[in-house]
Amino acid sequence: TAGATGAAGLVLGGAGGAGVYAAATGSGASPDAKALASVGSTAAPFHGEHQAGITTPLQARGHLVAFDLAPGAGRKEAAALLRRWSAAARTMMAGEPFGDTDSGVALDAGPSSLTVTFGFGRTFFARTGLNSRRPAALDPLPDFSSDHLDARRSNGDLWVQIGADDALVAFHALRTIQREAGDAARVRWQMNGFNRSPGATAQPMTARNLMGQIDGTGNPKPSDADFDQRIFVPADGGAEGPEWMAGGSYAVVRRIRMLLDDWEKLARGEQEKVIGRKKSDGAPLTGGSETTELDLDKTGPDGKLVIPSNAHARISAPEQNGGAAMLRRPFSYHDGIGADGTPDAGLLFICWQADPLRGFVPVQRKLDRGDALSPFIRHEASGLFAVPGGARDGEYVGQRLLE
Ligand code: HEM
Fold this sequence. Notes:
The protein is of the alpha+beta class and 403 residues long. The protein is 22% helix and 18% strand.
């Protein structure tokens, strides 16, 4: 169900659905003062079956931050930390300052669709004496031949995803989460991302990435009959288990650098063959509109496949992977231009699934063996996190594990 969506009831999805800013305007109308004000006044609910920030429409700003528990901190300190963090998230997501020492950075702004989402990494369980309750789904991801991973910017005991439609609201949440970590946890790595600003396009559209492609079309939709089954651990824990993960999901986080100088040298037609879709509107090269299915068997006058055998959209399609599917909900990033003149830019690729072994892993394995996109990207960091279900009234996130 779409139960975890923002207050505006809008969800991430493909064509026509994924209104990043539909939440703000409610229509495709040109922004007026009222519509712009509603960017700020839109709130995502903290309590619910699922944590916010999974099916919530993409926000304009994102911060990802991983923490390691401090030496000497164990289960008790972790429980107190999650209790503090949950209180901070609930308060800030309602647009309120948090605590007596609030920095004031978010004053004047409304909630701005802020979401704060918490996850546990594999190493958390040994540190807290909870190894027996560690889900098998947190077993390390396999190595991929194209990996160039920086261990210092990968994994971590705890992970927090922050998204908001206002940069100051997002920064305020990041600083508050860091402050509330206190002596219990230290930042391991931190990354900043962005998406389109609400109202930037005349109509709600699927987002574009920094290669200029429409990205998100093939995502499962909350209206699909099997959406919950693919994305969330069942209410009874189910086969994926464990029970404390009921309503939760597993996040795979990959910092994927785009080699934009190389990519931009390709003619548009070549770029389109790499994906198998048109850049202008995301339609398959076999015709139709963005929502038309790919015709994977269609050949051109030269007898060759119209969507090449190594096209990214072909290789990653669920039909080609035994139904493996995930909800991709990324942020773009740009961290400046290096001494060699190349931008440190790409995708903070975040995908959500009930089980990484039936989502990310088989698809990435296949992409690793021959995706036409591979020469233009580099996976630089990786994380896998168990994101528990949403907190019920009076509960904090992760309470069912930590108490
Ligand atoms: C589809 C771009 C990495 C899985 C697509 C599409 C684009 C795209 C443009 C077609 C539109 C759409 O359906 O969203 C990229 C870029 C990447 C990247 C630029 C890296 C910088 C990955 C990775 C995975 C992945 C690492 C998973 C391991 C998928 C899936 C689809 C897809 C599942 C949808 C296929 C379908 O339903 O037909 N990607 N992608 N992508 N990509 Fe990627």
